Amino acid sequence: MEKREQMYEGKAKKVFATDSDEYCIVSYKDDATAFNGLKKGTIAGKGVVNNRMSNYLMQLIEKQGIPTHFVEELNDRETVVRKVTIVPLEVIVRNTAAGSFSKRFGVAEGTKLLCPTLEFCYKDDELGDPMVNDYHIIACGWATREDLDIITDYTFKINEFLIDFFKKINVDLIDFKIEFGKTADGKIILADEISPDTCRFWDATTHEKLDKDRFRRDMGSVEEAYREMMRRIFG
Ligand code: UDP
Fold this sequence. Notes:
- This protein has 235 residues and is an alpha+beta fold.
- It folds into two domains: 3-82, Phosphorylase Kinase, domain 1 (2-Layer Sandwich), CATH 3.30.200; 85-222, ATP-grasp fold, B domain (D-amino Acid Aminotransferase, Chain A, domain 1).
- 31% of the residues lie in helices and 34% in strands.
- It contains six helices and 14 strands.
- It has helices spanning 46-63, 99-105, 134-140, 145-167, 213-216, 222-234; strands at residues 3-9, 13-18, 23-28, 31-34, 39-42, 70-73, 78-82, 85-86, 89-96, 112-122, 131-132, 171-182, 188-191, 199-203.
- The strands form three sheets. Strands 8, 9, 10, 11, 12, 13 and 14 form a seven-stranded antiparallel sheet that branches. Strands 1-2-3-7-6 form a five-stranded antiparallel sheet. Strands 4-5 form a two-stranded antiparallel sheet.
- The protein is globular and about 50 Å long.
- Uridine-5'-diphosphate (UDP) is lined by residues 90, 92, 98-101, 129, 175-177, 198-200, 212.
């Protein structure tokens, strides 16, 4: 696979074309942003952690029967993925109250939810990624009912799998955000990343935060948290 021109640069990743129109190459950066780009910084080594962790988890999720964009890890920061049109939704699952959920609903951070909870946000930086429901999504044409049913089914299965996976390394999966894409032949597959940038990970014993909240909230030991998650997964 030959790397060609840059197609897109996001906050945390660059995407390159390849010599095949079925595949792209993503390159993970150390750049970090929060609060819709208002806070900017770098987290040394983050790109490597996110690339390796996301690829590893996607391969395990694939084994659970859920299709993903993962194709091949090229090096520490770069991965070949299937080219998709991203469904413009942030799909958020919450097992424990935190972040915007706690703020919006007045439920204390750390309150275990009675069941896993699903939220959709419409991906639009200018609008600040507003929370939307199924009707908004279908009415605006961001996804069809059929797409949403598949996305919902995959998402709860991914949650069950990830809860168990992280429990084994003494980490509570508080919440996470995933994104889906559609291939040229119309198949919905898991895309984007699963990493400490996109999940809340709390040590199951001490409740220490091991994710991007350390950056968002200026808690210090940000690099250490990413490295600790890497160590627990890969040894
Ligand atoms: N999240 C994300 N990207 C976003 C917004 C949220 O990856 O643009 C993740 C975030 O890391 C957390 C979950 O989605 O694991 C829920 O985030 P929340 O809605 O609480 O937003 P936040 O408090 O991060 O603004």
